[in-house]
């Protein structure tokens, strides 16, 4: 009888091992499987003892033996079962004895782990209370984006807190638990506004990174209310993952004081990074930059806007072709957001299904001269198929491969993205996969990129404090620099404008004959070459005109239009400013030739000197200093 039940116990042991391995591979918690398996094995092994009359109870029937076996299991899991009672009846069955001894040791350990898993939230709260980090990164939600962002920071000196976790921590995917453990992160059920930070915490970074953009806005505003009351003495930065003019207006009106609020539109940042790392001028064909955008959704629309100003270059015409399944709708939506974007840009919208022959007909008629292609359709697989087709199409157009366009396709899936990059790494035909979730939600790309450093330096140059950065010990200079920094942080428009002017510097360097593959490969030797080129007064004049043309295109991509002098006079009486941000009107959105007249009229209205051309010249003259300041950051 004992041998039969021992065999059953061995079967249970094997099943437990198999289920444990399966759960582990699937990233699930294994503690419940081990607890059930251990309990069943102890019960099965001890049941014959009570049936045969061993122990204090004497011989019993199956029901009473089962009850005593159950109680025995509970005492074993609690670590309270005396070994002597068991040894009395298994002296002749050494294999049973040794298996029971193993279970006597494993049972209490598994039970302790199971109990701890029920109090996971309590343990996590204790860990947060004991966190003594000077700098803490707080994420409003535990999801793949927030976890990737935390992993990309990768600084052991910082603490990482994930809030608003609604499930049981014991049920959390084992792979995710392992990733959080590697960064020593803490998972909390409470909201970020409920956190009570230790006195040792000096700097707090909050990331409102839930999937709901509305929730991000709401939570950020709630945290700001908390900040006003309790966190004034700490340095606080809030990154809100949202987009849209409504979001911008909402946070521009919030009193920030020493807190920085930054709206993160990852789609816009992805487009900027692409144009920075892979500039449009890589394959200029006969003084023409011809950009083909396939798919006019969120990413495609942002790419059209960015290319409209980024593609402004000396002696090179810009052409943008857009292919979409509903081209007319996409065109009307762009016109609504940017009424004047078509004035100085050749933008053509063409309706076609990329899976049908009509796509080839559009390419034959309008896009054979493409030098730069961006594919941003809804699905990764469709983007990959379209890129493969375009590679074949343009190889048939030009067998020499001298004027092959560079193809950039958005692939969100990280594994597919990396595979594509490996496949085409050694190919003469340039194909680049961008937009994977791992690349997008990177702290270096979103929060602390090289382009961000250049943008801040560009803003400092505009406020004429760039040359004062090395003398911050002087209280007056420090105050001027802080004023410029506050201006940069206070309005999202200031940041976007600075990003645009900084990004376009590498395009101006190319126009000057300074060979640079991308912004990420910038070296001091390039800055030295640029400084020498700028000694040419004619080139300096042309670059100043280009900068104004670039600024015009940027303002139009932001939805701005030209403000008439009469309109300027009207709202200057109330705002004391020549431009109207609410109406998106600016008097300087005119040609270079008209700029002197506008400057004179605005000077008359403001009763002070206003020289818009001087602003463009000032920027050109300080490009080298902007690059140097960014490299020193």
Keywords:
633 residues, alpha/beta, six-stranded parallel beta sheet, 14 strands, 55% helix, elongated
Give a nutshell description of this structure:
55% of the residues lie in helices and 11% in strands. It has 633 residues and is of the alpha/beta class.
Largest sheet: 6 strands, parallel
Note the gap between the termini: 78 Å
Strand fraction equals 5-15%
What general form does the structure show? elongated
Mean of the pLDDT scores?
85
> Structural class of the helix and strand makeup?
alpha/beta
Strand arrangement in the largest pleated sheet = 3-2-1-4-5-6
Number of helices, counting only DSSP H or I runs of 4 residues or more: 28
Using DSSP, what is the number of strands? 14
Gyration radius (Cα, Å) is 33 Å
User: What is the helical fraction, as a range of percent?
Assistant: 55-70%
Low-confidence stretches: none
Describe the structure.
The chain is built from 28 helices and 14 strands. Helix 12 packs antiparallel against helix 24 (537-557) and helix 19 packs across helix 21 (492-503). The termini are far apart.
